[in-house]
Automatic annotation (TrEMBL):
Taxonomic superkingdom: Bacteria
Residue ranges, annotated region (Disordered): 1-25
Native source organism of the sequence: Actinoplanes auranticolor
Protein's name according to its UniProt entry: Cytochrome P450
GO molecular function: heme binding; iron ion binding; monooxygenase activity; oxidoreductase activity, acting on paired donors, with incorporation or reduction of molecular oxygen
Amino acid sequence: MTDPDTEAPAYPIGRECPYRPSPRNDALRARGPLAKVTLYDGREAWLVTGFAQARQLLADPRVSIDPHRDGFPFVSPDMAGLEDTGYTDALIGVDPPVHTRQRAMLISSFSARRMKTLRPVLQAIVDERIDAMIAAGPGADLVSAFSVPVPSMAICVLMGVPYEDREAFEKPARALFDPDAAHAEQAMADMTAYFDDVVGAKLRRPGDGLLDDLIAEQVRHGRLTRAELVQYAMLMLIAGQDTTANVISLGIMALLEHPEQFAALRDDPGLAAGAVEEIMRYVSLIEAISRVAVEDIDIAGVRIRAGEGVLIGAAAANFTTDLVTRPEELDVRREPRHHLGFGHGVHQCIGQNLARLELELVFREIPRRLPGLRLAVPAAQVRTSVTGPLERVESLPVTW
């Protein structure tokens, strides 16, 4: 049972290894599945490290995802600044029933059946990027040569956005998380203008893609405004590209640091689909998922009061024996299907089928076609950064 009066340590906890959560989470978990932590602005919030409690609260309608509510826990200044840009005003920052309506418009575009039709296209993207690396190598920065282009090209194909326009959205997408509010607001303005132009062009001349489907099925029937579609487009592109790119980089780095696991995928490509689940669990890209209580909640011997911030420690929860035995080990032969890498509950990642397919192809083809792949620098020299709750790999030098 957690003692609410125990001193609340600083949060977030920096990673000692970029591709796995800090073992210092264990000390917090030893206090109980919920513990108070102190955020950068001096406010306290509940950190949930227990697996069962994390899943329970992610599915509890008494916690809100709305960052405009008093008490919402921001883990960094850049995340607090993002609230003012309007980026969270669609899907990822709204509660039911608004969220329910928005998600219903998009869900069919990310169905398993839709992904099946995309598989040959995504296979061709992965093959082309590996071909380019081999032609230019040996030696490459995996981030710029592979990890970023693959999901960026994939989401552009799905949405019907020209990949050639990537300079118009990739740089502003990164600047959205700049702690300088003026830079973040300018990035939002730049991306809004770009996607408004894209939507305008599609209204005049329909094409083939998710945005075109939404225009035909929702906008033209008055169920979705042009401004809302622009917001959806920005959200899907950023979420669909940035997170997957970093899972690829962190996952490959983890596999290369565990050569027996890389060899298992090399020798048996059929392990790739299941390995995606284990890699998502192990790298746990998102440290914590922010929520705020809207009612009092009694859980695990403590009372979360209305207005208190709640951080669902997805990374910490993924490293509990309630999910897998020997959680500290990377084992591509197991499939922890209930991990929190894609979240849980009504806000579970809408693009998880797309991400799973991309990652399956990546973790099958990289070991198969580059069996001698290895880090070109010591792991300690790999450049990483943290943006809000997201672990990023800036550069990953590899050779073969």
